[in-house]
Amino acid sequence: MNPQENNNNKLAFLNDLKKKYDHQPVFLQCVDEIALSLLPLFEDPKDGDFYKRAFLTMAEPERCISFRVPWEDDKGNLQFNRGWRVEFSSVLGPYKGGLRFHPTVDEGVLKFLGFEQIFKNALTGLPMGGGKGGSDFNPKGKSEGEIRRFCQSFMTELYRYLHPSTDVPAGDIGVGGREIGYMYGAYKRLTNHHGEGVLTGKSILFGGSPFRPEATGYGLVYITKLAVEDPDHNNNNKKATSMKGLRCLVSGSGNVAQYACQKLLELGATVLSMSDSNGTLLFPDGGMSTEDLEAIMELKNVKRGRLSEFVQPSKNGGNGNKCKYVNGQTVWQQKMEQCDIALPCATQNEIDKDGAKQLIENGVWLVAEGANLPTTLAGQDVFRSNNMIYIPAKAANAGGVGVSGLEMSQNAQKLTWEPKEVDLRLQHMMKDIYHQCKTGSTGTTTLEEGANRAGFLKVATAMKELGWVQ
Questions:
Q1: Which residues are catalytically annotated?
Q2: What's the pLDDT score for residue 4?
Q3: Buried residues in 282-298 as b, exposed as e (16+ CB within 10 A)
Q4: Where does 251-391 show beta strands of DSSP type E?
Q5: pTM of the model
Q6: Residues 395, 397, 398, 404, Cα dihedral to 10°
Q7: Cβ contacts of residue 427 below 8 Å, gap of 6+?
Q8: Interatomic CA distance for residues 437 and 447, integer angstroms
Q9: CA 332 to CA 344: how far, in whole Å?
Q10: pLDDT tens across 427-455, in order?
Q11: Biggest alpha carbon–alpha carbon distance for the chain
């Protein structure tokens, strides 16, 4: 019997779940990934059956809300999209997780994201359950007015399910500060409730937290730095004990990627790439400069443009740090010399088996995931077989939802903390999450397995104490 068949036999208790949701492959991929890392718990002679019951309960959302979103385009035509909110788990607190606007969104994608969110939120140590929502609306190519009208219509349907102690969404792909503002404005007009923490990622002008935009990207780099400096990883292929001078591949060009690059540059690392859905921008020689990043942030955040439109500040190209744009290819298809770290910050399943092998050839020895589930199961197997340091998304990108939780605390207190205080709390949170990843693993197990076990055990124990699963 090969290892795959053996694992399938050990996870036979999931067969009914897989049969029921075989039309949601990304959700089942997420279930498999987490379940495999929990096999020692499922095989425990004393509590194994309880852990199986708890896992099956967690894998079924408490409720899935679906609704129509009508909106008017600039030509006066009525358009329709579908909206969802998957309220997955309220075991540890109110449902918490972002809203994604992207044409690939469906219930299965949101269930995958919501299931991951349960364990990620558990790792933060804050009282937050797991949820996710969004729409198959595509913001790309839409005018400001069209996006505003869509957001207002979306909130007209969603608002009735939100409350600071029930469900508190945030942003995700396609939903940034602008979209959160439009939705919060609609919520205020619909409810006449003001100052409520029913959305996070808000502007600082109406209840947002300092440091929220930076939190996911900065937190990603903070936990990467902890792994680089950790002497316990000296048995891996680790080639450095400091971030300074490390050559880093970054994918994506949204909020997470931008602030990850900003923090990497601040720590003296070399940033070699960014990307969007059309192609990849490479800085193969001296790396990206601070001025390059500032120009990219203006292009993406203000002009709403594509990386193919990037015009490098002339003084940077003149210094030998010329960039190169590769159309239609991802960062993970590029042959680059002497790389150290990969930070996938774009979307799910962006690194497949071939992409993972290319990273090995490029010299990468540490992968920390800024996006949710950006590596396929086959790609993860390549990381493990090559003894790479691998920090999964639920740990590596938890800084964003962690600071969202801190925003909820500030809203409840009617206070706004200083940016330095929020940053210090974020650093402490990422250090605690890293510690949980290490202590949750045993023997030869990995940070990835440690993260899954630590998050699962918190939720399973709480379910038992609440009397929800025995």
A1: 132
A2: 62
A3: bbbeebbbeebbebbbe
A4: 270-271, 273-276, 279-282, 324-327, 341-343, 366-368, 389-391
A5: 0.90
A6: 180
A7: 222
A8: 5
A9: 9
A10: 999 999 999 999 876 655 689 999 999 99
A11: 67
